[in-house]
Amino acid sequence: MRVAQEVIEVLFGSVFWMRIENILLAEQHHQVLSEDFLRQRANALARRFGLAGII
Q1: In this structure, are residues 16 and 3 in contact, taking their beta carbons and an 8 Å threshold?
Q2: Is residue 24 included in any domain, yes or no?
Q3: Full residue range of the structural domain in which residue 27 is found
Q4: What confidence score (pLDDT) does residue 49 get?
Q5: What is the band of 22 on the pLDDT scale with cuts at 50, 70, 90?
Q6: Per the domain annotation, does 14 fall within a domain?
Q7: Is 34 inside any structural domain?
Q8: Which one of 11, 44, 48, 50 has the minimum C-beta count within 10 Å?
Q9: Count of structural domains within the chain
């Protein structure tokens, strides 16, 4: 997901990436999530924000 982070930061700024990251961290805090699940969730969030296929 590091590459995805860099792409999002370049295209949309670090604040946007921090929003996605904070959502993922909040979800991870409530349960132990696999990296694969986090990647799928990051993709879902990217689609929600109109960034499908970036992550």
Answers
A1: no
A2: yes
A3: 2-48
A4: 78
A5: confident
A6: yes
A7: yes
A8: 50
A9: 1
Per-residue buried b or exposed e for 26-45, using 16+ beta carbons within 10 Å of the residue's own CB: eeeeeeeeeeeebeebbbeb
**pLDDT score recorded for residue 46:** 80
The structure tokens listed for 15 are: 């604040």
For residue 53, report the phi and psi dihedrals to the nearest 5 degrees.
Answer: 85, 0
Mean pLDDT of the chain: 75
Does the pLDDT at position 44 exceed 60?
yes
Query: The tokens of 42 are what?
Result: 């990051």
Does residue 7 fall inside a structural domain?
yes
Task: Tell me the longest C-alpha to C-alpha distance in the chain.
Answer: 31
Q: Which amino acid is at 54?
A: I
Q: Is the Cα dihedral 34, 46, 53, 11 positive or negative?
A: negative
